[in-house]
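Schema walkthrough. Field components (list of strings):
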Amino acid sequence: MNLAMLLEMAADAFGERTAVSCGPLHLSYARLRSAAQAAARELRHSAAGHAAFLDTNGLSAPVTLFAAAYAGLPYVPLNYRLTSAELEELLQRVAPAWLVAAPGQLARLRLPAGVSCADVTRLLEASCEEGLPLPDEPAAVAIQLFTSGTTGTPKAALLRHENVMSYILGTVEFGAAGEEEAALVAVPPYHIAGISALLSSTYSGRRIVMLPNFEPAEWLRLLAAERITHAFVVPTMLVRILEHLAAQHSAAKFPALRAIAYGGGKMPASVIARALEVFSGVDFTNAYGLTETSATICLLTPEDHRAAAGSAEPGLRRRLGSVGRALPTVELQVRDEAGRRLGAGAPGFVFVRGAQVAGEYRGSGSLLDSEGWFATQDRGWLDEDGYLFLEGRADDVIVRGGENISPGEIEETLLAHAAVLDAVVVAVPSEQWGEAVAAAVVLRPGAAATAEALQAWVRERLRSSRVPERLVFRSELPYNEMGKVLRRVVRRELEGPEGS
Amino acid sequence: MRLIKPGLRLKSAVCATEVMVIRAPAGEASVSCGGAEMLAVGEAPPQGVRLDAAHSQGSLIGKRYVDAQERFELLCTKGGEGTLAIDGAALAVKQAKALPSSD
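Field assembly_structure (string):
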């Protein structure tokens, strides 16, 4: 079982169809296979233990993904928004490695020893005439994704071929897409949704249209110009698309659009209700999943959306805020703190089980329990019909526009300021981002600093997404008897309208 | 007869058909195509085997094949001329599930 089997089948059955396009460039399934095999052949004879990717969405992303699969190496897409120091540290961790990177990225990096760079032009043009046998190691690592952990040090989530293949084969029918179908991919290549989009589109035969840097006007332009039939967005993108349309006083033109899927963070019910009106007639699907579960585990289907939107009954109407029901191949449970299974309506911790659930980080071993269940670290509850409602992360990671932010590094940065005695950073609800960063700070006696000064302090040291949008001063922070700061108390205080 | 488990890939001894096992109960079974026992990847076909005309309904790439009780499920990864069968009983194409696209 190997991811490249998806491409093998597509290239055998409809090799001349366009697999992927980006601007004026495109590759057919046959060309994609040939380029991936040519790169894999070289990789098999190299010392590389990983195939890393550092660029925005483009044709080289699927070539690198499938080349890694043919070569039997983990595919490691890296976040191009990280600082040079952060990227150098991650590259150090995957060396010896083969790296496919944009020239602009390479210019700002000092590559660690053992990292060799691909020639991107040659990568896209190379051919492999004889074909290449598929490695047959289902338990080999197919994809390694760095996630930001609660400690601030990125963890390497491992997805094995058998996990990812189980997801694709369980949810997608081979060649089911018509030749006219096209999927617009705007999620970055280092996000699990960006990877699963490539794999499921390949297997279904749906042409992928890449949008390297999401921007609402360009997204809307492509809908019409490329006759897009399917699109996936994270909540932040949908908010910006709707705001753009409102500001332009123009109606969206979507001549071929049939379906929009969304996920990657909490979608405010008000936003989805507005989107259903703006994109009337389009099917909406909410997909909930985690990196560790090889993407989607729950779906709120188009029928669910329509039933909820058209209902006056509160129980049904509420389902617009649900992430839907478990896939047929996946089981869900909600448990209390002691691990006891809870019934309908009772909030607790969400657990998931199924062949696609990897639940593993490099160095950690499997985090599945003896019966195969994985703790998602999300809190939520199930209704009578099995619809899952999420309430937030069990740990305190802030999910801002699909990006996981750990409070720890922001707190450390604030604490490094001479005037700051104590600081805690929590998530607060945000219509635009799903969650936003908020901080409560205690100043040293006699010291002075404004909220603006501390925000600037963080901005100078961390990425802009880390800057607390709301920063309040307190005389002390709430602690429990074990000396642990009570984040939930702070969060409740800060999320109210009077929380400043 | 051979041990059948999910993930196992088999190829026909008499046509181009290749399959991957998606689901199977624990234990051994005889998986055949075109009237001849299927082979593991890399295994050479026995001499003299030919496609049996009585077992030549064909297999289609991407289709899932199941037995009457749906205990076994094979994914056809390369199509061919032979009929897929388990323990002598021909398999049927499984109806596609309609899940909405989620990515």
